[in-house]
Design a protein that fits this description.
heterodimer; A: about 375 residues; alpha+beta; five-stranded antiparallel beta sheet; five-stranded mixed beta sheet; 12 strands; elongated; disordered N terminus; B: disordered C terminus
């Protein structure tokens, strides 16, 4: 219990001990107390603010609203912020602004009422959140790059095919032209093939380049089938490397989805790669991965990526989307986590179901426009 | 029987690579027979067809390495030149261990491939000649009477006529007559040549048992 004699001194000591800023104002908004934590937060000495209007601690916009809040409370007794608290912006002495959580209480028995504000600095938390977000973005980028690194050898193979054909055709033409009575029509046909194969090589390179472009966060309406079509060239080499047959069953007349194409392709690429890898350990005679698109009964676009490999043991199913959970020898355990977070950021879902009769099936659902 | 002319079999699942190889081989006067998959090749290939095989390592369905093993199991002797877009060293090692003739990385210089194909065809030709020669020796040996076969075994294991005569319970003169018949039927000009033939047959038998 505070005695009348030591009350002000003890009160100030208690306020100064508080970790958060504490500001006491009267019914006009005039500052009556300003603790040490507040001095640190706002950069003002208590002496500079006592007797001043509390609006000096706020950006102009908030200051006007603040006066209105007090006026309304005095008039109607209806609290706006009192007893609840909310996130607002505060202003330091040097004019810089920072995020705070402000909770306000009315000092009991005071008339006209006095208000006690508790100021909790959110700068640190905001920074952490921001760092987390950046980290997540980086992670997405890194896992995508890692994946691209892995498929790069598959790509190299795909580019080498048309290059080999071009070289063979050109050399054949040269030899045919050097021989007696060259068949001009045959040579012309070979030349046509050369230009077609050069275009094919260019297409593959182009697709790889558009898959690496990541910083772009923009979304646009697109048919999910065309995203899958672009991916084919990127995965065909990988499928071949794993001796896997690739099948596509693309639903017709699918409505558009509004997505970031690169990110959705990243999910699909990662699902396909997982499927190939799981098949690497399978003894199935005809290893197959089927990508199937359709419109769900509740009008979501669904992409099913299914393999006929060993599937996921039941005990692992609940852990599939846990970070750092992996059954691969070389794996980050982040692929599915990242994929699911991308799906969810699009308002969609990514889920697992066993394939029938064997294997695993991952289902990406995206809301339609 | 007339020797069939050699064919270069090309097995690659890529239409363009296949088509371009066919034309390239045609431009140097080589007959090529392209196939889009290992299975398709196996369906059509008969082991008495001489030639060589240009094979992509990685194909959907049966891979090149698997096809090579299938051919080994079937006792086909076709030399295999692997082509790959990956330049994958462990795979090259595996292929060579299983008896691949050569290994080329895509894209390749045409002359490199053509040289290797010529060498592979040469090897195939040599091997088939060797096979025919052995077949001939075997036929000759099978034409020997049981007593002549006995004499052949004893002669080639280094026994002198006198010892053979004692072993077989006949006169030395009789051994000499059998021995002359053996040399004549086998078409051997000398004892050394006769021994060589027997060793060839024996080593072939061992190979067959080992595989």
């Amino acid at each position: 219990m505070l005695t009348a004699v030591n009350a002000p001194k003890t009160l100030q000591a208690i306020l100064d001990a508080a970790v958060d800023g504490v500001v006491l104002i009267d019914h006009r908004g005039i500052i009556e107390a300003f603790n040490r934590a507040s001095e640190c937060l706002f950069g003002y000495a208590a002496a500079e603010v006592l007797g001043q209007n509390v609006s000096m601690l706020m950006p102009a916009g908030e200051a006007a609203a603040h006066d209105a809040h007090i006026a309304r409370y005095l008039r109607t007794g209806t609290p706006h912020i009192i007893g609840r608290g909310r996130e607002v912006t505060a202003r330091r002495r040097d004019g810089t602004e920072f995020p705070i959580f402000l909770s306000v209480g009315v000092v009991p028995g005071s008339d006209p009422p006095r208000f006690l504000g508790f100021v909790h600095d959110l700068t640190l938390r905001r920074n952490t959140e921001e760092r987390g977000r950046l980290l997540q973005e980086r992670l997405t980028h890194v896992s995508r790059l890692a994946m691209l690194g892995e498929i790069a050898s598959g790509i190299a193979h795909e580019v080498n095919q048309p290059l080999t054909a071009v070289a063979n055709y050109a050399q054949a033409c040269e030899r045919l032209l050097g021989g007696a009575n060259p068949d001009i029509e045959e040579i012309r046909e070979a030349l046509r093939e050369i230009s077609a194969q050069a275009v094919r090589a260019g297409d593959i390179v182009h697709r790889l380049r558009s898959a690496v472009r990541t910083s772009d966060q923009s979304r646009a309406p697109v048919n999910v089938n065309s995203l899958i079509g672009e991916l084919k060239d990127l995965v065909v080499g990988d499928a071949r490397r794993h001796n896997v047959g690739l099948h596509f069953e693309l639903g017709e007349n699918l409505p558009l989805v509004e997505v970031n194409s690169g990110q959705i392709q990243q999910i699909l690429l990662s699902l396909l790669r997982n499927a190939f890898e799981s098949l690497a350990h399978a003894n199935s005679p005809a290893k197959q991965v089927t990508t199937h698109t359709r419109l769900s009964p509740d009008r979501d676009v669904e992409v099913h990526v299914c393999d006929n490999g060993p599937g996921v043991p039941e005990r692992n199913v609940p852990r599939l989307f846990e970070p750092f959970f992996t059954t691969k020898k070389v794996g980050t355990g982040l692929g599915l986590v990242t994929s699911r977070s991308i799906a969810e950021s699009h308002g969609g879902t990514l889920s697992f179901r066993p394939n029938v009769p064997v294997g695993a099936c991952f289902v990406l659902r995206l809301p339609t426009l | 029987m007339k020797e069939k002319s050699p064919i270069v079999f090309v097995v690659d699942d890529d239409d363009a690579v296949r088509g371009s190889l066919r034309l390239l081989l045609k431009s140097v006067g080589l007959a090529a027979q392209p196939y889009g998959s290992a299975q398709e090749f196996l369906q059509h290939y008969t082991p008495d067809q001489p030639g060589c095989l240009v094979l992509d390592v990685r194909m959907p369905g049966m891979s090149g390495l698997e096809l090579q093993q299938q051919l080994n199991v079937r006792g086909a002797v076709l030399p295999v030149i692997f082509i790959t877009g990956h330049g994958d060293v462990p795979m090259a090692v595996e292929a060579m261990q299983h008896g691949a003739f050569d290994f080329l990385q895509k894209p390749f210089r045409d002359q490199d491939l053509i040289d290797r194909i010529q060498r592979a065809l040469e090897k195939d030709r040599g091997y088939r000649q060797e096979l025919r020669k052995r077949e001939q020796i075997r036929e000759r040996r099978d034409s020997l009477t049981p007593r002549e076969q006995e004499v052949l075994d004893l002669v080639t294991s280094g026994k002198a006529n006198k010892v053979m005569a004692a072993d077989l319970g006949v006169s030395q003169r009789t051994v000499e007559i059998h021995r002359a018949r053996v040399m004549e039927k086998m078409g051997a000009a000398s004892l050394a040549q006769l021994v060589r033939m027997v060793i060839d047959l024996r080593s072939e038998g061992e190979e067959t048992n080992a595989s």
